[in-house]
Amino acid sequence: MERLNRDAEALARHFGLRYRAVEADRANATSRYGICYSDGTIRIRLRHATTGKPLKYSSLVNTLCHELAHLRHFNHGPRFKEFYLRILAHARYEGIYRPGRRAAPARPEVLPRPLGQPVDRAAPPRAPRPGPPAPERTRPPRMVQLDLF
């Protein structure tokens, strides 16, 4: 929760959002992953409803971005969806949202940077995948109907 609170603060600051608190939802919550109250309280479920296993951090961040978007649009309309995707994209850019990773190491403390200043996020080059080349795609033969009568 400590890490999630730090990330929530950074995202809210970037988008000019105000919230009261980010809290863990009650342990027996099964009907939702998160909820945003009108007073600015955000509650997020930390464990899977049926298995009880801890949710991946990327799932928690995804839910957090969804609930932060509700601070501006308290519905699920098109403007909400657009804003939610903007928050999620920014979280991905900042390295907060990294889907597909099981257990990401805790982020080191980083000094805050002024808004608008670029972040150096150079990814290492990927090695080509081994294996035979992909077969050339060809169209299937056209079927022509012949009238014989």
Largest sheet, in brief, is: 3 strands, mixed
> Which percent range describes the beta-strand content?
5-15%
Name the poorly predicted regions: 103-111
Helical percentage? 25-40%
User: Quick one: CATH superfamily of one domain?
Assistant: Metalloproteases ("zincins"), catalytic domain
Number of helices: 3
What gap, in angstroms, lies between the N and C termini?
Answer: 77 Å
How does this structure look, described?
- The protein is an alpha+beta fold.
- The protein has a domain at 2-93: Metalloproteases ("zincins"), catalytic domain (Zincin-like, 2-Layer Sandwich).
- It has three helices and three strands.
- The chain has a three-stranded mixed beta sheet, covered by helices on one side.
- The chain starts with a helix and ends in a 56-residue tail after the last helix.
Walk me through the topology:
Blueprint: H1 2-15, E1 21-24, E2 34-36, E3 41-44, H2 57-70, H3 78-93
Parallel strand pairs: 1-3
Antiparallel strand pairs: 2-3
Helix pairs in contact: 1-2, 2-3
What's this entry about, in short?
The protein is an alpha+beta fold and 149 residues long. 30% of the residues lie in helices and 7% in strands. The protein has a domain at 2-93: Metalloproteases ("zincins"), catalytic domain (Zincin-like), CATH 3.30.2010.10.
